Every structure is written in C-alpha cells, then in structure tokens.
Amino acid sequence: MDATQTNGEVAVGTIPGESQPNKTRVTTPYLTKYERARVLGTRALQISMNAPVLVQLDGESDPLQIALKELSQGKIPLIIRRYLPDGSFEDWSVSELISE
C-alpha cells in the first residue's frame, strides 16, 4: 500500500480511478443507513481512542452518543467515497450529506 499526503491529510491504500467533479455528481445526496452505521462506528472508535471531540459536551461520556451529536451538527471530519459501476468514484464530505 502506498500513502500519499496532500494538505496535511494522508490517504492510505488509495485505489486508482477517476474522481467525479463535485458539479457532476450522480449519486444521491442522502446518507444511507449503511454509510451512517460505518461513519458512526468509525467516529465513535476515534473518540474512544482520545481523538478531539468537535462538539460541546453536555455530560455525554459514551463515544457513540458523542458521534451521534457530531453527526446531527454536521461536524464529523470524514469523507465517504462512493464507487460507481464504471470504476470512477465520488467523494462526499459527511457534512455535505443529508442525514435524517
């Protein structure tokens, strides 16, 4: 696996493919239940391993509850990569996606 670094962010094990420009996105702007589960689990794990919390805490100590609060406020710093059938992909920031 190779690691590339851009603007302080590290992408590990990237798969070659074509990125879709943000204007020509074809996938839905809604966060799917599978993406939601993956994002919450990943962020809760990060919080449990002492990652900085990006929201004001009101007595919450459970990492999953903190991750839910971050998701509802749109402050989760993750990017979702959606692969398309032609081998290209779209990158969506979690804050760009509509979650209900």
TrEMBL record:
Annotated family: Belongs to the archaeal Rpo6/eukaryotic RPB6 RNA polymerase subunit family.
Region of interest (Disordered), residue spans: 1-25
Signal peptide feature range: none
Subcellular location: Nucleus
GO BP, one annotated term: transcription by RNA polymerase I
Protein name: DNA-directed RNA polymerases I, II, and III subunit RPABC2
Organism expressing this protein natively: Sphaerobolus stellatus (strain SS14)
Any Pfam family hit: RNA_pol_Rpb6
GO molecular function, one term: DNA binding
Recorded superkingdom: Eukaryota
PANTHER family: DNA-DIRECTED RNA POLYMERASE SUBUNIT K, DNA-DIRECTED RNA POLYMERASES I, II, AND III SUBUNIT RPABC2
